[in-house]
Amino acid sequence: MSQSRSEIEAALSGALQDAIKDGVPGVSAVIRTSKGVVWQGAAGLANIETELPASSANVFGIGSITKVFVAVVILQLVEEGKLKLSDTLEDHLDEYLIQDVGNAKAASIAALLSHSAGVESWEDDPVWIVEGRGSGLDPQKHWGKADPLKYIQRPSPLEPGKISYSNTNFTYLGFVIEKVTGAPAEAEIRRRILERLDLSDTFLEGFETHPASAKLPHRYHFATETFKSAAGICPAFSQPREGLIDATPSNLSVEWTAGGMVSTPNDLTKLGLAIRDAKIFSKSSLAIMQDFKEWTRGFEMGHSLFRYKSIQGYGTWCGHLGSVLGFTGVMFWEESSADCVVSVLANVGTMHCGPVPGSAYDVVLKGDFLKYALELTALED
Asked: What Cα–Cα distance (Å) separates residue 63 from each residue in 11, 15, 86, 363?
């Protein structure tokens, strides 16, 4: 027996509340179809200390979902004849950016997009983990765009042609955008995507001043024993409750085009819809993004997109996940016949943590949220 709209909406709200019970401070979600938003909800707290509720107005760090924005700009430049997927970094970038980073010179645009260039991720370097997210972090520091590259100036142990997820790939693609256009990457993202789609609450933190920054919640991160061992705890961070640190004094400048954007589920579902329907570039560019290869943990890798087949049988989804200091997020659309785009963002980070109590990922991947999203959007048909 099918459920009513009110029953489905209650189940969706319950999925968010379950995340709060599991230890996520705050969470926000949107479900959209081609007709518009069909449901939005929020649960938990934007600020644990003051008990300020999280709301749908909050903006969140989106982590690696940023890479989707970057890929769209890159593919637009390919369509305009300003780039070729076969171009290498050596074709476009100054020597000082690539000369000491293993496999960087010969890395093609296509390989960078698909994480198969064999370039190490600065995010995995043990020294960077301490200085970028842990006990050595200066929360007030504004990282330069090239600063993370110094952590991987060495031969790479990775084999070109094999998928190895790397933030460095998209740091480099940010520099490619700047070299080809002569403008800051953040300005090109804004001109080509944000303004075009009216994504009014989205910006690149540390590189743009934006009024939506006033709507940021506190950013929390799980302080598991694994995190303490790998990163340590920044002395400037408080611990509002056991196993959780408040990383609000920090910023996302170190992430730049690899993961530094801030947005809302509303804006991200607009982006997902525009990509799904090839409204922001050509269908051939969409086909490139969706050229999927086997990867890991039930995911396939395309050119900046993931494909995920729900282990519970709730459809097959395209999009991206994100996790940075203080935030986790998901942006997915169902790839077959369902008219359904979802985004869930949470003000808790999980990087370098090992197993954690909950996250935006868990809302989408482990529970019945996708089931209810499909049921609700089916009522719109």
From this structure: 27, 22, 27, 17
Phi, psi of 331 (to 5 degrees): -135, 115
Q: In whole angstroms, give the CA distance from residue 131 to residue 3.
A: 50
Domain map (residue ranges) of the chain: 5-378
> Partners of 39 in the beta sheet?
31
Distance in angstroms (rounded) separating the CA atoms of residues 377 and 315: 13
Tell me the pLDDT of the chain (381 aa) as tens digits.
578 999 999 999 999 999 999 999 999 999 999 999 999 999 999 999 999 999 999 999 999 999 999 999 999 999 999 999 999 999 999 999 999 999 999 999 999 999 999 999 999 999 999 999 999 999 999 999 999 999 999 999 999 999 999 999 999 999 999 999 999 999 999 999 999 999 999 999 999 999 999 999 999 999 999 999 999 999 999 999 999 999 999 999 999 999 999 999 999 999 999 999 999 999 999 999 999 999 987 899 999 999 999 999 999 999 999 999 999 999 999 998 899 999 999 999 999 999 999 999 999 999 999 999 999 999 976
**pTM above threshold 0.90:** yes
Burial class, 318, CB count within 10 angstroms (exposed 0-12 / middle 13-18 / buried 19+)? buried
Q: For tokens 């993202």, what's the residue?
A: 189
Class for domain 5-378, per CATH? alpha beta
Q: Strand order in 52-53's β-sheet?
A: 52-53, 36-47, 26-33, 341-346, 327-334, 316-324, 306-309, 299-301, 293-296
Is the CB of residue 331 less than 8 Å from the CB of residue 269? yes
